[in-house]
């Protein structure tokens, strides 16, 4: 008969430091991967040419995360622009810009890689006003 201290359950605690070390290593690795991806995207955007093209704002969407309990939530704002050749590009915009752009707006979009710079609305062509 085995004693309480010799049971398999208590022997598992011998491996606890190893499991904690693996978990901390995994979290650190994910942090480093996220950091490298962000730096790569930032560098790619800086190397890209700044473009200015006429387009139409076709859709808008938001992405909300966090906010449980007493924690505040975060919101990302996105607008999809369609160019005259039919190509579409979704760009993240600031909340102030998101509120000013309406689906269907035609205008001149200035962007650099995946970085939104500005959107200047063009006057309506067939207005009855």
Characterize the structure shown.
By secondary structure, this protein is of the alpha+beta class. It is 33% helix and 37% strand. The chain has three helices and five strands; from the N terminus they run ααβββαββ. The protein has helices spanning 8-12, 16-47, 95-100, and strands at residues 50-66, 73-83, 88-93, 106-112, 115-121. It has a five-stranded antiparallel sheet. Strand 4 and strand 5 (115-121) form a beta hairpin. The protein is elongated, with a radius of gyration of 25 Å. It starts with 7 loop residues before the first helix and ends in an 8-residue tail after the last strand. The model has no long low-confidence stretch (mean pLDDT 89). Keywords: Membrane, Transmembrane, Transmembrane helix. This is DUF2500 domain-containing protein. InterPro entries: DUF2500. The chain crosses the membrane at residues 15-36.
- Major sheet: 5 strands, antiparallel
Strand arrangement, major sheet: 3-2-1-4-5
**Number of helical runs?**
3
Based on helices, strands and strand pairing, what is the structural class?
A: alpha+beta
- Using the alpha-carbon principal axes, give the shape: elongated
Q: How far apart are the termini?
A: 95 Å
Kindly estimate the percentage of residues that lie in beta strands according to DSSP. 35-45%
User: What sequence of helices (H) and strands (E) makes up the elements?
Assistant: HHEEEHEE
List the quaternary state of the chains: single chain
Average pLDDT rating: 89
What is the strand tally?
5
Radius of gyration: 25 Å
Low-confidence stretches: none
Roughly what percent helix? 25-40%
Keywords: Membrane, Transmembrane, Transmembrane helix
Protein name: DUF2500 domain-containing protein
InterPro entries: DUF2500 (IPR019635)
